[in-house]
Amino acid sequence: xxxxxxxxxxxYSKHFSSDDAAAAYNDLYTAETADSxxxxxxxxxxxxxxxxxxxxxxxxxxxxCGTGRISNLLTEVDWSVIGVDSSQAMLRLAQERVPDARxxxxxxxxPSAIDDEWLGPHMLTTAIRLFLNxxxxxxxxxxxxxxxxxxxxxxxxxxxxxxxxxxxxxxxRMRGDQDSNVLASRQFERMLELSGxxxxxxxxxxxxxxQVYRMSRVGRFAIWIEDQLDSNSFGKWVLRRxxxxxxxxxxxxxxxx
Length: 257
Ligand SMILES: C[S@@+](CC[C@H](N)C(=O)[O-])C[C@H]1O[C@@H](n2cnc3c(N)ncnc32)[C@H](O)[C@@H]1O
Prior knowledge:
By secondary structure, this protein is of the alpha/beta class. Helices cover 44% and strands 19% of the residues. A seven-stranded mixed beta sheet has the order 3-2-1-4-5-7-6, sandwiched between helices.
């Protein structure tokens, strides 16, 4: 699904345009896959975050919403969600999965005046499973867009699903197909700060490679170990330092008075 990095961001955006690509993306999150195991852990962590953040008008924007995985989680806890994506095939599956959310066909890099409700500002904005696949210039543009579309007292949740150093980043490097986009956790945090975001909680997982998670018993054991690590401060440090999947809960940096 995501092995076309070296063909550039423009092709990545097009990659999800077909029904087959959309269905294949959905299949990543079926019961026994590596991605679904990591996602199960992340959902628990996200649920805990979502009950603590300021609600205000309840409006959430799910950037690059894909087939609605995050939009679904948000509507389940009563956020009023607008999902934006440039792939109609992905949006069709999203609308089927989350009838209560509104999905808009849009290019996040070139917002149009035709349907500008998604421009916000929203109390919550999310961009998950996106930045690993985006080149440096567009990453900064996307983050700037996210910040502008977030209420000054709102929350931004983004992730880096190829964080380095991690076993996954090492395996991506060895395969040689995503090298240029793998970002060290420190670089990623710096990039968030430069975009005017203040990093709060970091929810970490992905200590193992996809191959490990994919194995039936071993994969379950690997997740169990992550759960144990997540229950104490040293283990949290290990996950934050060496996990490949880092979720950042950010606020908007306030200008100094
Ligand atoms: C890997 S999927 C992530 C989907 C979802 N956020 C999730 O976590 O399951 C990346 C999505 O980014 C969308 N995308 C890529 N470039 C885009 C652009 N310029 N504007 C809007 N969506 C874009 C793709 O169509 C695809 O659905």
